[in-house]
Amino acid sequence: MRPAAAASTEPFPRAFFHALAALSRRRWLVRGGERTAAARGFAQHGGERRPWRPGEPLRAVDWRAAARRETGLWVRERERERGGRLVVLLDRSASMTPGDEPWRDLASRRLAFAAASLALEEGARVELHHQDGIPLRIAGVGRSARLRALLEGLPPPAGLGAALPALRPGGDLLVLTDPWLPDPTWWDLATLAPRQRSCRVVFLTLRREAAPPAEALELVDAEAGRMLPVDLRDARRARRAHDVHLRSLLQRAARDRIQAAVLVADPPAGGPAALLRHAHAAGVL
Amino acid sequence: MPPVSFDAPLQLGWLVLALPWLWWLTRRRPHRHEVGGLRPWEASRVEAPRGRRRPPPSAWCALLALGAAALALAGPRLGGGTVHVVDASLSVRARGVVAEPGGRVMRLGDPGPDGVEPVVAEREILAAIAAARDASRVVVHTDRPAPVGLPEWLVWEAPSPPSGPNAAILAVAPSGRDRFAVHLMEEAGRDLVLAADDGSRMAVTAAPPPGALVEFTVGPTARRLWLETSAGRAPDALADHDAALPRVRVVLAADAGGDAEALVAAAWPGAEVVRADRGAAAPFLRFLGVDGSTLLALDEDPRTDLGEAAGVAVVARAARAVRLRLAPARPLEECLTPAGPVRWPDLPRPPRGAAGLDRALAAVGLLALLAALGLRHRGS
Fold this sequence. Notes:
heterodimer, A: alpha/beta, Rossmann fold, 2 domains, two-stranded antiparallel ribbon, B: alpha/beta, Immunoglobulin-like, 4-stranded antiparallel β-sheet, 9 helices, 18 strands
């Protein structure tokens, strides 16, 4: 990819869709044949019909079929949902854009769109919780445009992180956040995770945090505004402290049986195509 | 320590950029850096920093790179330095374009103690360049046309286009008491005035090269003569239009023969001849300048050994040598406006010690820049 495309601040540049299409093709090749057979379930109306049984809700009656057959009431069989339910939680707190750097916010929106698009292609329903209003609930490949419009129109991250929403159990939870998740939020997540089919957390890192300037600084917390005078002239020590912090997050996630990954959000590693590649390699997508 | 000179000292102005940079690096207030959280750096907490900060090593390397680049652009030279050869002759002064450079200056054309303005042309400039052998670079400020094929270390600064058609006094020879034969040349056929410093003036129409001889009578106090245009100004030409009047006093030995005065008059028409005091040991003949200094002396009467004809010739040759010493004859070729580019002989190379340091400094600057980038990449 060209450097200009890697450093683009457009949420969804053309290079992103090219990379997403390539990733989608690879997944189809790997999972070939998985989606060929439909099975009975409770999610969608299928093609088969059967007679209505007493006790079933009248809502389930296929009135058109009943009218055509003139005898009894008929019910359209429901098929099992094939892709399950993907629940994406987007962190929209101010710590996503420290120093007004857009890369972490961009990466989180791109990953959300990529994960949701791939899930929709596989027949899943998608819930997107973004802390800025009513969550988006969609299903079907054709709805990804709505998802894109919502992600493009999100206001900039601001303020403190909101509490985790109440989630129905059984979904595939994907949390896109920074390495600065407060402890109460993590406790909520650890409580929520066992009731979900799977739980993945992606920590998006920035170079300005991994390698701050090697000098005496006043570090400012983007969310709370707290100030910390530090001496970071020992650059290796500062980097090591950041690495230790990330390692402790990953250990904590493993202890709570949460699948966690660390991805770099700055370009070029955090550029549209490279981000998807790294996310795929890390098992996030 | 050998002196260091700069070919382009104005380029040192780039060093001014280092001042705001240094201020930025050493400013008192710590730089604010916003991050998502503070947890990893709690262990690096310090008291609110006081005093000025210490710039990181990469900043010093980058400053070194800037300094080396600025110095390299300025073209430093070790030893020698720049010598300015300034042509301040009348032809340049008449236009008001005499250069006034700083540093080491060799002025040519300033009037001597006797008030005679020396001629400044290629020969004098070449002599000045040769005298500045210790210089690593020579800048010539003149109105003479630049010769072709100048070496790199020789810079020719002409304030205006080369002079137009020339008028020149090629030679002055005594022809009688206070009378002089003046050899004039004028390329453009202008009407000129021959003037002397005692106020004597004479209108002349000089013949085209090789010129013509005119007789010019001056007062007894005149020491110098020059050419003017009819408007009373120096001809807008080269600086060959003035000359010293060759004047001598001849002292004969007291016991010299009675025809010695006639011998001197033949060799130097109009010369003031005196006899030395009787009894004092004196050479046969002495030519004295107007300031009383001995210009040339003949101990014995040459006619005694050589015979009459050869002896007279010896005295005549001595008189000619004195005359050329007082008023050198200028070759016609030097006074003519060059028809084409002037070619000079191969000039000596500058001294080895005057080697330029710009390449070495550029290399140092590049290494410092790479070191700064490397240190920056490592986070220090």
